[in-house]
Write a sequence for this structure.
C-alpha cells in the first residue's frame, strides 16, 4: 500500500479504497508540514508542473499552486482567457506546446466533461483533473472526505447528504464515488429538476425535503446553484429555492442532533446557506480549504513518484 | 544469506550505558539539550537512552523529539526509497538549543544529511551532534562523522548490518548478514 494504482488522477471512480487511504495517510504528514514555521519541503525540486485553467477558479487554482510550491516544484500558470486558445488552437496542441518546454505534470480544469481522460490518452505527462465540466472534481471530493475523517474520526458508517444542484455538479459526482468507496451512506437532496433522473441507480438515497434529509444525516454538504450552467429555468426563483433548500439557524435548531456543515465554495451567502451558519462552529468550510492544500500535496507527491527518474 | 550476531543483548545494554555516561559528561543536566531520533528506527534507541539516563540520574528530564526525513531524501524517484512517511514530533523549539541526533546505524551518511535539512526547517540550533549505535566505517558518501559511537563495524558492501530491538523484533542484538554470491 505504498503506491497509487493509477498513473493519472482523472476521477475518484478509477481509484481504489486503498489509494484513498494512502492519500489520506500522506495528507496527514503534509498537514503537519504546512503548520510548521517553514512550510516547505524540498521533495519535488526537480519537477515542473503546469496549471492549465480553461475555466475560472480561485480556490482550486490557489490551492494547487500553493501545494506545488510547498513541495518545491517549479510552477507555470495558464488561463484560457489570455491565451492562444481564443485563436483557435486545439487542446492537444496547446498542451503539447507546453510539454515541449519540459513540463512533468499537468493540472487541468476544463469546461468539457472527459477533457482530462482525452488528454491523458494523447500526451506524455501526468494529468491531474481539477474539474472537467459536470464529470468529476476528484481533489475536492478527497479533501471533503478527509475533512469528514478529521472532524468525525472516520468516514465509514457516516451519513452524508449532498444538497443543491446535483445535476450540474462535478463535486457531487466525485463526492458520491468517494464517500461510497470509504463506506459512507450518501443521500442527495434538491429540487426534482436538479436531481439527475437515474441517480438512485448509483446507490444513493434521494430526498426532496430538506428537513427530512438533515434529520437523517451526520454531515450536510451544501452546494452552490451554478447559475452559469443553468440553461433553462429549473426552479421558479432563487428566493423560492432559498425558502425550500436554504440552510438557516432556524432549521438547524429544530433538528434532533447537531450536524456538521460543509461547503465546497464559493458560498452564495443567503442563498443555499445563511451567513450565520456559514460562520458558525458547526461549519468546517475553512478547514476544508486548509485540508485542500495538504490533500493536493499528497496527490502531487504520490503521482510524481511515478515519473520516470532522471538518468 | 548467512548471519552472525556481532553484539548480543548484554553488549547492547552495556554500550547504551556507556553512551549515556558520555552524554551526561557533555550535556550535564540536559537543560539546553534536545535529543532527536530519526524516524523510524532511531526512536527505539532514543527510548532506551532516555530510560537509562533516568536510571543513572533520576532528577534529569531530557527533552526529546523525533524527525521524519522522507520528504528530504535525495533518492526520491530513484528506486527503493520508502514513500510513506512517519510522524515528525517536534514539540520543543530548537532555536538556540544543542541538538543530539540519534539513529541506530550510520552507513552512507545520506539519512543524516536529510535529517539535518529537516531539522534546520524548525529553527537554528546552536550545535548539532550525532549519536549512532553502529558506525559502519569506510562506506561514507558524505563528510559526516558521529560524536558518540556505540560500536564500529568494518563490513563489506555486500553485507548488511541490522539492529534488532526487544520491543520490535523480540530481542536486542546486532547482526551481520552476508549475502552469498553465486
Amino acid at each position: 500500500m505504498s503506491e497509487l494504482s493509477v498513473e493519472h488522477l482523472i476521477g475518484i471512480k478509477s481509484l481504489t479504497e486503498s489509494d484513498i487511504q494512502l492519500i489520506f495517510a500522506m495528507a496527514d504528514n503534509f498537514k503537519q508540514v504546512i503548520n510548521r514555521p517553514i512550510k516547505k519541503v524540498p521533495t519535488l525540486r526537480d519537477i515542473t508542473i503546469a496549471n492549465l485553467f480553461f475555466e475560472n477558479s480561485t480556490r482550486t487554482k490557489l490551492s494547487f499552486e500553493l501545494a506545488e510550491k510547498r513541495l518545491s516544484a517549479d510552477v507555470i500558470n495558464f488561463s484560457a482567457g489570455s491565451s492562444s486558445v481564443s485563436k483557435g488552437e486545439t487542446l492537444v496542441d496547446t498542451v503539447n506546446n507546453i510539454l515541449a518546454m519540459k513540463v512533468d505534470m499537468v493540472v487541468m480544469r476544463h469546461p468539457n466533461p472527459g477533457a482530462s481522460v482525452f488528454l491523458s490518452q494523447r500526451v506524455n505527462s501526468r494529468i491531474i483533473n481539477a474539474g472537467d465540466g459536470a464529470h468529476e472534481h476528484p481533489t475536492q471530493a478527497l479533501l471533503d472526505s478527509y475533512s469528514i475523517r478529521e472532524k468525525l474520526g472516520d468516514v465509514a458508517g457516516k451519513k452524508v447528504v449532498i444538497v443543491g444542484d446535483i445535476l450540474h455538479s462535478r463535486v457531487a459526482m466525485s463526492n458520491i464515488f468517494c464517500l461510497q468507496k470509504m463506506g459512507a451512506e450518501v443521500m442527495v437532496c434538491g429540487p426534482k429538476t436538479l436531481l439527475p433522473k437515474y441517480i438512485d441507480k448509483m446507490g444513493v438515497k434521494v430526498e426532496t425535503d430538506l428537513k427530512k434529509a438533515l434529520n437523517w444525516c451526520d454531515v450536510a454538504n451544501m452546494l452552490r446553484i451554478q447559475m452559469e450552467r443553468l440553461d433553462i429555468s429549473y426552479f421558479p426563483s432563487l428566493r423560492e429555492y432559498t425558502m425550500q433548500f436554504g440552510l438557516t439557524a432556524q432549521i438547524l435548531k429544530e433538528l434532533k442532533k447537531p450536524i456538521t456543515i460543509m461547503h465546497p465554495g464559493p458560498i452564495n451567502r443567503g442563498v443555499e446557506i445563511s451567513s450565520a451558519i456559514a460562520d458558525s462552529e458547526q461549519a468546517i468550510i475553512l478547514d476544508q480549504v486548509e485540508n485542500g492544500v495538504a490533500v493536493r500535496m499528497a496527490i502531487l507527491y504520490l503521482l510524481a513518484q511515478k515519473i520516470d527518474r532522471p538518468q | 544469506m548467512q548471519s552472525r550476531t556481532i553484539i548480543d543483548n548484554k553488549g547492547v545494554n552495556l554500550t547504551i550505558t556507556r553512551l549515556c555516561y558520555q552524554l551526561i559528561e557533555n550535556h550535564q543536566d540536559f537543560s539546553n539539550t534536545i535529543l532527536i531520533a530519526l524516524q523510524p528506527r532511531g526512536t527505539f534507541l532514543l527510548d532506551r537512552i532516555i530510560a537509562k539516563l533516568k536510571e543513572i540520574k533520576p532528577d534529569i528530564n531530557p527533552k526529546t523529539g523525533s524527525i521524519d526525513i522522507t520528504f528530504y531524501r535525495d533518492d526520491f524517484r530513484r528506486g527503493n526509497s520508502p514513500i510513506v512517511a512517519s510522524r515528525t514530533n517536534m514539540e520543543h523549539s530548537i532555536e538556540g538549543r544543542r541538538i543530539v541526533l540519534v539513529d541506530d546505524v550510520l552507513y552512507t551518511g545520506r539519512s543524516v544529511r536529510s535529517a539535518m535539512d529537516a531539522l534546520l526547517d524548525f529553527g537554528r540550533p546552536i550545535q548539532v551532534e550525532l549519536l549512532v549505535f553502529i558506525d559502519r566505517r569506510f562506506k561514507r558518501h558524505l563528510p559526516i562523522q558521529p560524536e558518540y559511537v556505540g560500536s564500529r563495524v568494518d563490513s563489506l558492501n555486500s553485507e548488511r548490518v541490522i539492529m534488532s530491538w526487544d520491543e520490535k523484533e523480540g530481542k536486542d542484538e546486532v547482526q551481520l548478514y552476508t549475502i552469498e554470491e553465486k
